[in-house]
Amino acid sequence: MDILQAFSDYLDAAKTAIASASTLEEIEQVRIEYLGQKKGKARELQSLIGKASKEEKPVVGKRFNEVRTEVTALLETRRDALGSGATEVESDFDPTLPGIAPRLGNAHPITKTITHFRELMGRFGFQVVEGPEIEDERHNFDALNIPEDHPARDPLDNFYIATAQKTAGGPILLRSQTSTVQIRTMEQVKPPVRIVSLGRVYRPDTFDATHSCMFHQMEGLMVDKHVTMAQLKTLLSLFARSFLGPDVEIRFRPSFFPFTEPSVEVDMKWGGTWLEIGGAGMVDPNVFRAVGYDPEEVSGFAFGLGIERFCMKHFEVDDIRRFYENDVRFLQQF
Ligand code: PHE
């Protein structure tokens, strides 16, 4: 049948034309030539259908539609390929030019210090635990042997959350120390205990070069049958030396905390000067009683170190406020 042959020829010619079109303009030309409504080749072929005999008509009509659909699909595929820029961009793309370097982020110096502390304490056999930053009075004060009338509970020295009090059934505050995690841990596990907890604490201090109303502490707690103060000092010395270098010294000064007895202030000598880094002591028997441990059976030490202090020494930062300003020019140095 001549008409069917004409359709095949049209299809072959269209395929060749589509394949050799190499720009969007050329493919548009091919479309006008083969599928154009006014003068396109498809239009000419369509007029042939009228010349077919009555029996041939259904076959011819069906074939015409198939051929036109195929050409349309091939055209679209080719147009998409050209439109994606594959061919055109190639010509002025210079693969030897240096690329645009992506700006890389890095961990915050405090985060770096925390990660490093965790790793060091892990090597000393301490497990890392977490506690909530929003606390009740039991964990922040009562179980830590801080009496009802102790000035540490003063509303002016703490961030109490007045609106939460009703639903919580008692005063709620942002924890003022990570010692809360000592209590939370001992409530849950039996001795022996060897944990550290690193995180944020909150106190309404006036912002200056060494004070911030939010800062970070590392709390440590070790409880077992014969834990001693000498072990505490050895551990803190080893820890400080692993972090800052072999010539770092640790010294204890007598002090007082309601939750330790005896209590000490811990100083560290580094680069010729003494710097206070935190508090420590032997866990007070009342704290053990509050969590159901028997103070006749076990003893323990606890310490709380200011993370910012170490971080400032280590990275030679002289103003604590730099850590919280989110100035990229500062942060990208680390
Ligand atoms: N919680 C005390 C503080 O924030 C530090 C401390 C922790 C002291 C553990 C003794 C034992 O000042």
Helix and strand layout, with pairings?
Layout: H1 2-20, H2 24-35, H3 41-49, H4 57-83, H5 86-92, H6 109-123, E1 127-128, E2 134-136, H7 137-140, E3 159-160, H8 165-168, E4 172-174, H9 180-188, E5 193-202, E6 214-224, H10 229-244, E7 249-257, E8 260-270, E9 273-283, H11 285-290, E10 299-306, H12 307-315, H13 328-331
Helix pairs in contact: 1-3, 1-4, 2-4, 3-4, 6-12
The structure holds phenylalanine (PHE).
Textual characterization of the structure:
The chain is α+β, with helices and mostly antiparallel strands and 334 residues long. It folds into 2 domains: 2-90; 109-331, BirA Bifunctional Protein, domain 2 (2-Layer Sandwich). Helix content is 42%, strand content 21%. It has a 7-stranded mixed beta sheet, with helices on both faces. A 3-stranded antiparallel beta sheet has the order 2-4-3. Helix 1 runs parallel beside helix 4 (57-83) and helix 6 (109-123) packs across helix 12. The longest helix has 27 residues, at 57-83. The protein starts with a helix and ends with a helix. The model has no long low-confidence stretch (mean pLDDT 92).
List its salient traits.
single chain; 334 residues; alpha+beta; BirA Bifunctional Protein, domain 2; 2 domains; 7-stranded mixed β-sheet; 3-stranded antiparallel β-sheet; binds phenylalanine
Number of helical stretches of at least 4 residues:
13
Shape: elongated
Q: Kindly provide the name of the CATH class of the largest domain.
A: Alpha Beta
Tell me roughly what share of residues is in helical segments.
40-55%
